[in-house]
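Consider one such protein record:
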Amino acid sequence: MRSRAATVKPGVAAGHPSTAQAGAEILARGGNAVDAAVAMMLVSCAAETIFTGLGGGGFATVYDAASGRVRCIDFFVAVPGLGGRRGGPKTAIEVNFVGQRVPYEIGPATVAVPGVPAGALHLWRNWGRLRWQEVVRPGLDASYGTPFPQMHAALLPRVASAMCVGDGNEVYRRADGSYLQAGDPLRHHDHHLAYELLIDNPQAFYHGGYADALIDAVSDGGAIGQPDLNRYRVIESAPWTARVDDFTVFARGNDLDDLLTTMEAVADSVKGDPLTDPVSALNLVARLRAPDRRAETTNIVAVDGQGDGCAITTSLGLGSGVWVPGYGVHLNSMLGEGELVRETFPPGHRMGSMMSPLVALDDDGRLAAIGGAAGGSRIRPALVQVVLRMLRGVPPQEAIDAPRLNALPDLIRLEAGFAPEVLDALRAAGDEVALVDHRDPYFGGVSAISALGAGADPRRSGYVVMV
C-alpha cells in the first residue's frame, strides 16, 4: 500500500536528540509545524555546531495542508562587498573524508553574509502560531550545553582544522587538549547572549551591536560591511516540481545539483532495488554520477496535527574559524567552499547551494512525504535514493538506514550491503568500486516523515519523536 493511502502523523525528525526533543515539545504545547521546525533549527545552531550555526544560512520548504500550497524560503548566505570592501587572502586547509584529501579555505575572507536569524524570523512571522519567545527559548536552553553525539565525536577530528581554530580550541576540546568525546557537554562561551538578543531584537543581527561585532571580527581580510547587512533579504518563492511515480515532488528547483531532474530521471529508469538488481544499480549510477565535493549541513523535519509540514536545511560550511566576539557565534566559510564557488558573483548576489528540502504530495494534494538531507554534494544522491524508496512504500527509517552509493566520475563509493552481483556489475562496467564497511557521515544525513512513520539518519546521530 502506498503512503498516500494514510495520513502523515505529527512528529519530528532531526540530526540530534536535543534538536528533535525541542520540536516535539513545541508541538505538544500547541505549536504548528513551522514553530517546531524553527525551534529545532535554532537548537541545532547550538547543539550541532560542527554542521550549522547562527552564522550560517539555509533553505526551507513549507506545506500548508488547508490550502495545499507549498512555498520555498531562501535564507542562504549572500556575497559581501557592497560597501566596496574586498576580501583578502584565504587560509588553505585540508580535510580527509573516506580516504580522500580535500582542500578548503577558511579565514575572514571566506565569510559570507549570514541568513539564519533572518530566515527564522521570516518563517515564524509568516506561519508561526506560538509567541516568538517560546519558539526561540529551546535554542537559548541548548546554548548552555547539550551532549556531544557519538557521530559528531567521530567526525570532529576530520574537520578539526576548520573547527578547532580561534575560540573553537576551547569549544571543541577538553581541558587536557583532546577533542570532545561522545557525551561531553558542547558549550560555546557567551552563546546564550546571542540567543537572548535573538529573543529581544532579532533585527540586531543585521543592525546594532551584534552587527558591529560581526563586521569587526572579519575586518582583517573579510569583505562584510554594514551595507551588506542592510541589503540582506529572505527570498520566498513558488516551488518547482518533478513527477516521481504517482507523486509530485516540490522543491526550490534552482539547487546547484538539479535534484528534481535527477529524481525524475531515476524514477523513470530505476524500476528495481539497486541493492540487489544490477540493472537498477547501473542506471542509478549513470544518473547520479557527479564530481566529489564536501560541505557540512544539517536537516530537520516537522509535521503537525493539521497535516502541515516544514523541512529546513542549514549549513555553516566547514566553518571559517572566525567567531563573533562576545556572542560565541562561529561564522560560515561559504566563500571558501569550492563546491559552492563555481563562478564569480557580484556583491549582494545570493550564493548557490545543493540544499533542497522537499515535500511530496499525492494526486489529491495530500502530504505523502517530507524530508531533506545534509552533506553537500551527497545531498542529491542521498535524497534520490531515500525518497524514491519512501514513495515506493518503504518506511522512512528503513529507507534511511539502507546502504547508499555515491557515483563519482571515476569511482563509485558504496556502503556495505549491496549484493555481490551488483558489485560485480559495477566493476564490469569499468568503474573502480570503493566499499565502506560502516554507515559513514560522508553519505549524507537524511531526516524524513511519511505516513509510514519518521526516520533520522544514524550517520548523523539522528533522532525521531512522534507526537
User: Anything to note?
Assistant: The longest strand covers residues 57-64. The chain is about 30% helix and 25% strand.
